[in-house]
Amino acid sequence: MRFIVTHKVPPRYEAGVVDQREIAQMGAFIQESIKSGIFTNGAGLLPKVPRARVSCRGGECVVSEASGKGGNNLLAGFALMKVADRDEAISWAKRFARAAADCELEVARVTEAWDLGFAPKPEGKVPERYLALFMATPDSEAGAPPSERERREVGALMEEMVKAGVLQLTEGILPSKLGTRLHFSAAKRTAAIDGPFTESKELISGFSLIQVPSKEAAIAWADRYGAILTDIEVDVLQLHEQAAFDDTKR
After folding, report:
1. Domain ranges of the chain
2. What confidence tier does 14 reach under pLDDT thresholds 50, 70, 90?
3. Are 2 and 241 contacting, i.e. CB atoms less than 8 angstroms apart?
């Protein structure tokens, strides 16, 4: 079974506090999970770059700066893009939103190794990676399939993005009734709440894609993940059995 494990932005991240011990422990855990065949992909989101919220209704899109709380941050899917800059990422996100009809997306910059001091930044103009986060709707939470028009237009757009070298990875997420939300305090799990969830108010700070035999195994993995990040909220959500597109392993 395939799952996405997301963690939310804790107050210390908003203040720009970086815990090198936490980074080292998480790095060792992810490497262990890669060797065991559990971890398949993932990334953190850079707190230094403002996020954009793209809301589209009736073909008209409005772009605003994402706030830390108050909006819907319950996921229905995501797309990882490699682009020249933030403006290009937002442009593609707007086209995604129009193709998918009435929906809301968030565009966030992905943290690279040089952002954490693990590698020197390459010289010259470097492509940037952004995550377009698709927020859940009543239809997606009900498990309703996309309309024929949506399948046609989103499919054509994805093909264009692949040919342009923009689309790196995209996944659909099953309804939150199949998920579990974990709360951690002082590196210990304090609560586990089964879905469905009406929404999630906190901004997503990062994600991990894992493949395990069961949901119980996914929660056990997320327990170790959340314990490293200490005071945090973690969602364990089930993915479709196959990625809509994954070019990251080529």
Report:
1. 38-246
2. low
3. yes
